Amino acid sequence: MIKIFTTGGTIEGYDYDRPSSKQENTKSIQEIIKSILTKSDYSIEKILDKDSQFVTDDDRALMASKIQNVQSSKILVTHGTITMVQTAKFLGQQNLNKTVVLTGAFILGTNPESDASFNLGFAISALQFLESGVYIAMNGNIYNWDNVRKDTENNRFESINK
Asked: CA angle at residue 24 from 56 to 102, to 5 degrees?
């Protein structure tokens, strides 16, 4: 069973540059999962509803606590890309003894051209074979928590040690 924790972000279609979009035009992770036709058993719990630039270490501690206290050993966290690396590093230092994959989207989840469905499906697949640890799975790549950075100029993630 995969436990999915949602925290808000572009993957759900929140355009934080247009605050009114949050109420008008969002897409639940449940809707995205239905669109990818996964056969994996999963449950979803929303723990935050924030633009990731406002995610704090207290929020990260809440995520770590939720991850530690859930029975599942396979955890997916949907997260905004702005501070995804910081959250992965925080979680990676917690010795959670679970497989934790963070994913999100660079293009609004409600946009037909969004990478949300691909990234979510890829992350669910990655959970099936990754060993215990904390990872970021984005756009067909998997990064270990201590070897990743966000290239803001090109809007992508990359390994620190290439």
From this structure: 35
Own/partner long-range contacts of 115-118 (Cβ < 8 Å, ≥24 apart):
115/139, 116/10, 116/11, 116/12, 116/13, 116/27, 116/32, 117/32, 117/35, 117/36
Element (H, E) at 133: strand 133-138
Tell me what pLDDT residue 77 has. 97
Identify the CA nearest to 119 among candidates 36, 61, 31: 36
Given a cut of 80, whether residue 11 has pLDDT beyond it is yes
What pTM was estimated for this model as a whole?
0.90
Tokens standing for residue 52: 């990731």
The whole-number average pLDDT for the span 3-25 is 70
3-state secondary structure of 110: coil
Q: Which parts of 42-83 fold into alpha helices (H)?
A: 57-69
Active site residues per annotation: 10
